[in-house]
Amino acid sequence: METRPSAVEIITLWSSLFLEADLPDHGEPTRRLIDLAATHRDDGVFSIDDPGVVWLKRQIAHGVGAYFSRSGRESAPEWGARGRFDVQEPGGYRPLANEPGAFLAGMYVLQWSPEQGVGGGRDDALPGCVSFYDPRVAMNMNAIKRDPYHRYHHSLLPRPGLLSMWPAHISYFVHPNRSREPTMAVRFGVQLHGPSSGNPRGPDGR
Amino acid sequence: MDGEGIPNWRPGFVEFWPTILVRRRLEACEGPNGELIAIVEDMDRSREQLTSRYQGVDFLAGDAPAVRWLRSGIEESVAAYFLEAGMDYPIRWSIQSWPNINRSGDYHPPHNHAWCYLSGTYYAKLPADGSGAISFYDPRSLANMLDPGGDAPEYTLRPDPGTLLLWHSSLNHLVHPNASDDTRISISFNIVLEWANHYASDD
Q: Inter-chain contact A73–B149, Cβ cutoff 8 Å?
């Protein structure tokens, strides 16, 4: 039986931290947000005066605080967020993009059908999924089977009530919606304010 | 709906795409280090630009006991890397290796090791003043631009004699100037894979 040689230390650097949470008691505020999505298609979701929006803003604030805490910041910098409704009709998709100008990007899922079987014959597609791509360009180019650098994407099938956040520079792709219902989400970017949100901190403690 | 309630749910976190650096101290290194230093210094006397003309050298092909000891340590470390990753199938690879002597003021600008799989260095002699550190750079290009207070894009190590480092060959790294009058002596290597069809992904 193989064993690890003595004194081998595996140091992991520069991971990309993702937050995922299935929000409790999301039913009623989510229904309100779905109604709002029918009439608001600009990027001012968070300025709408509605209890559903107030609820979502509180959840996002909680998540952002948790994200800062988890990523080791001594104090959370000042931040703001801009959000928009994103509705993909059947057949709709979103090409590869990231969130310029933001620190975090995020998504709160309002409506997303798990039934994605309409159309297409390929078994290597991921209809309805959202795929996030390794920001280390071409890092997988010489990766072999089960290599730690082999898996270049993280893909998930969203579900209503899911709140997720990720580093804004990560590119992601919303696969074609092959369900019979529109998918709906609130997409948002979290922008940091001011230059005093902390000096760079070296992992070696310098 | 309680719009006024303070959320108290706990999120799940997942860290994707870490960049891996293996650090290992080879045990009982003092004796082999002395022999390695003598071999490298002897090579240095007989070869012009030993360090920068590394392509013509195959250091670990030597038969001296210290060289065989080091080769064994590297092979064990590479095997540990594969084991840690769950790559528990036959993998064929070869080593290309060369010695480095950095004298006072010498450094190695940022670079990576093209056409290789893993790269590494074993440190036999370091300046006593702590100079000659090695820094690795975040491959997530520009990821720090909107992340004040986040991880620095530079990770610096000051190895001790007997330390072996192993990393992905594409990772940019810098050897800082030797600010002392001592020499800094190390042995670097590349792990090159020999292709086999069973390396192809099973997912």
A: yes
Note whether residue A201 is domain-resident: no
Position A131 in a domain: yes
Number of domains in chain A: 1
Condensed to tens digits (0 to 9), the pLDDT of residues B120-145 reads: 999 999 999 999 999 999 999 888 87
Half-sphere exposure for A142 (CA within 13 Å, toward CB): 15
- Whether B18 sits inside 8 A of A52 (CB atoms) is no
Interval B180-192: pLDDT, tens: 999 999 999 999 9
Residue A97 maps to a domain: yes
Q: Residue A169's domain spans which residues?
A: 8-192
Please report how many Cα atoms fall inside a 13 Å half-sphere around the Cα of residue B5, on the Cβ side: 13
Q: Which two tokens stand for residue A143?
A: 């990766």
Which residues make Cβ contacts (< 8 Å) with residue B31, sequence separation at least 6? B66
- Output the pTM of the full model: 0.86
> Which of A91-95, B41-45, B145-149, B173-177 has the weakest average pLDDT?
B145-149
pLDDT surpassing 60 at residue A195: no
Ranked by mean pLDDT, the top range of A138-142, B73-77, B80-84 is B73-77
Answer yes or no: is pLDDT of B2 > 80.
no
Cβ neighbour number for residue A184 with a 10 Å cutoff: 21
For β-strands B184-193 and B12-16, DSSP reports them as unpaired
- How much is the ipTM here? 0.84
The answer to whether position A111 is within a domain reads yes
Tell me whether residues B87 and A144 touch, CB distance under 8 A.
yes
Scan residues 157-196 of A and list those with Cβ closer than 8 Å to B. 163, 167-169, 192, 195
In which element (H, E) is residue A31 found? helix A27-37
The partner residue sitting opposite B139, judged by closest CB among A139, A151, A163, is A139
CB pairs A-B closer than 8 Å? 210
Q: For residues A59 and A75, which has the higher predicted lDDT (pLDDT)?
A: A59
What CATH number has the domain bearing residue A158?
Answer: 2.60.120.620
Residues 53-72 of A with CB under 8 A from B: 54-55, 58-59, 62-63, 66-67, 70-71
